Amino acid sequence: xxxxxxxxxxxxxxxxxxxxxxxxxxxxxxxxxxxxxxxxxxxxxxxxxxxxxxxxxxxxxxxxxxxxxxxxxxxxxxxxxxxxxxxxxxxxxxxxxxxxxxxxxxxxxxxxxxxxxxxxxxxxxxxxxxxxxxxxxxxxxxxxxxxxxxxxxxxxxxxxxxxxxxxxxxxxxxxxxxxxxxxxxxxxxxxxxxxxxxxxxxxxxxxxxxxxxxxxxxxxxxxxxxxxxxxxxxxxxxxxxxxxxxxxxxxxxxxxxxxxxxxxxxxxxxxxxxxxxxxxxxxxxxxxxxxxxxxxxxxxxxxxxxxxxxxxxxxxxxxxxxxxxxxxxxxxxxxxxxxxxxxxxxxxxxxxxxxxxxxxxxxxxxxxxxxxxxx
Length: 375
Ligand SMILES: [Zn+2]
Known about the structure:
Number of strands: 5
CATH architecture of the largest domain: 3-Layer(aba) Sandwich
Oligomer: single chain
Strand content: 5-15%
Radius of gyration: 25 Å
Largest sheet: 5 strands, parallel
Bound molecules: zinc ion
Helix content: 40-55%
């Protein structure tokens, strides 16, 4: 991963490059921010830059022996720790058990998320964690001399998934690091990291990607039309992982939008025959899609309320959705919005508990009729 492949984040890239140029690389740094802001790709690009034998002012060369090894994530001085599951035929597992899968994950989805990683492992319901055995592995690796590079670098992904015992082992290492050793912790939520680790690492705060940078990035990486890229970058709150989800589900998004318009129109008009026809249709699409549709409806209520409150700058809607909101937003106001939310929440709960979808949706629409007419 070169800096040039990272979407936006120029300030952070510059900061990291400066630390190398000025010889002020802090030995323990915490890259903290949403996965989709690019915290892992930034840590990877930083490690590559530090180890590059022929770096330029702005990036790694991509061609030296170090760059070529890091391009495959097979450099003997670059170590990885990440959460894993225990395979069925083993009683314990450490990161190295899954190193092949991990390299593949980094190569195919550099902006991959924890959930992508779990899905790739076929984890079912099990959670991936960083076990205490990993602590011993970390010690063993970092106590070796570096093979080829000036530095040994350990990238630890999701320190939130370490238990206290492992965290304490790591803490000792951070406090008394072996010579020329760098720790890059890549985390999303500092609440789940013990405070002593937080206080001993230098924070690299990863903020959201700007809408314009995401717009450019989406066009480059996904060959989207300008319209589509603009629409998704507006919806994704600076998070590339969310943008990818939107791209995957853009067909569903259009369907959800059309269903939402129908539900609101029919509920407002209260024409029972048409309403029952619509309820018949929506009750056939399956529970997962019904839940996704209702969750989408919650977002639409929130966005329309924001428009009604004249806070247009905060709105995150597609052109279609905005077109509809021009007429619809006046029906959503602070008096009825909480009632709408609570009815939709209830419907989600009932669908989750396998209630009869026809009954749930008909009941919901009848209540919406009353609530939409509230003053
Ligand atoms: Zn290089």
